[in-house]
Amino acid sequence: MPTDGPTPPCPVTDLQRFQATLDRLWTAVRWENKNKETLWHLVVDGIPMPGNTHLSRVPIKPCGCGSYGADTDQPCSPRLHHIWECPIAKAVREQIDRHLPLPTSATIEGGMTRQQLWLVQAPPGCEQAPWDVIALAALSSMEYGRHCLRAATREHRPQGPSTHGWQQQQQTHTAEQGPRQRAITDFFNRSGGFPQEEEEDANTHPILSTTQPAMDTPTQTAASPLDRARAHTVADFWARLHSFAALGIPHYGWDQVGPQHPILAIVGTQMRCADPVDITDHGAARTEQGL
After folding, report:
1. Quick one: which of 138, 112, 128 has its CA closest to 35?
2. What is the DSSP letter of 198?
3. For labelling, which of 96, 117, 189, 270 has a CA lying 20 to 30 Å from the CA of 2?
4. What whole-number distance in Å separates Cα of residue 197 and Cα of residue 128?
5. How many other CB atoms are found less than 10 A from the CB of residue 62?
6. pTM recorded for the entire structure
7. In Å, how far from its chain's centre is CA 127?
8. Which residues of 114-123 are buried (b: 16+ CB within 10 A; e: fewer)?
9. Number of other residues whose CB lies within 10 A of the CB of residue 42
10. Are the beta carbons of 218 and 194 closer than 8 angstroms?
11. Which residues are within 8 A (CB) of 253 and not within 5 positions of it... i.e. 6 or more apart?
C-alpha cells in the first residue's frame, strides 16, 4: 500500500503475505473474475481515475459527493478517496461494520481498517474464507458506486425530452428471481425505491433488476444523486454476496464457518447471506466513532 494516507508502508512480510493472498483468491475462491478485478486494479493503481499514477497528467475530476476534486491541492489520491473515504465507500464500510462484531479496541476507529480491506486480511472475529468474499464484494461495489454516482449526477442535470424514453427502457429489464432479488427489492423498498442508474460497465457488477416505482414519484424526486448512488452501491454489495451464497458451500477453507457468522453463515448444507441494514445519514460515522 502506498504512502497516500495515514497507513504506513507495509513491511516485506506483509507484501509476501499479500502475494499469497492474490494466489489464493484467484485459485481457491470459485467466483466470477469480474468480482476480483477491482482488487487487481487497486493493486497496480490501475483504476481509470484521473490523477492516479498512470494518469498523473490528467486533471482530477470532482467527485459527485462534493468533497473531493474541487481544489487542485488534494489531501489524498483518487483511489484513497473513491475506495475508502467517499460517502459511497463509507456506505459499504458501514454495512460491514454494523454486521461484524468488531471490538472497539481491535482498531483505532472501532471498525475494519483499510489494510484489512485492501489487503484482504480478516479482522478479529471473522474467518478468512468469508472475508475473502466480503472484501472482494466490497471493493467491487465501491467501484460500481463510483460509476453510479457519476451517472446519477449527470441524470440530475436538466435533460432533454429524449431522456424519458431512456428511463422507460431502463424499467423494462427482466427481474431476477431467488433470494438475491428479494434482498435487493426489500432494501430498495426501505430506501424509497430509487431507480436504477446508468450502467457504465456491465462487467463491474451483477445485473440488478428495476422493479421500483415510476421515475416521477415524490420519494424519488426528493432523493439526491448521492443518496441514490449510495442505495444502489449497498444493494450491489449485498447482491454480490447473495449470488455467492447461491453457489453453495465451497470445498476449501469453510470448515470453521458456522451458523453464527453474521454475514455468510453455514447452516446445515446451505450458505445463508445476511440482509442489508438501513443506510444512515452520516455514512460511516458509526465506523469512525467506534459504535
Report:
1. 138
2. P
3. 96
4. 33
5. 13
6. 0.74
7. 20
8. bbbbbbbbbb
9. 18
10. no
11. 28, 127, 128, 129, 132
| Per-residue pLDDT reduced to its tens digit, 117-158 | 999 999 988 999 999 999 999 999 999 999 999 888 877 655
CA 81 to chain centroid: 13
CA–CA separation, 120 and 28 (whole Å): 14
Task: Report the C-alpha gap between 264 and 193 in whole angstroms.
Answer: 26
Whether the Cβ atoms of residue 123 and residue 219 lie closer than 8 Å to each other: no
3-state DSSP assignment of residue 253: coil
H/E element holding 200?
none
Per-residue model confidence (pLDDT) at position 78: 84
Question: What is the CA 285 to chain-centroid distance, rounded?
Answer: 17
DSSP secondary structure letter of residue 153? H
Q: Are 263 and 272 in contact (CB under 8 A)?
A: no
pLDDT (tens digit, 9 = 90+) per residue, 248-283? 999 888 999 999 999 999 999 999 999 998 887 654
CB 135 within 8 A of CB 117: yes
Residue type, 252: Y
Is there a contact between 67 and 90 (Cβ–Cβ < 8 Å)? no
CA–CA gap between residue 131 and residue 177 (Å, rounded): 26
Cell 459504535 locates to 291
Residue 92's pLDDT is what?
96
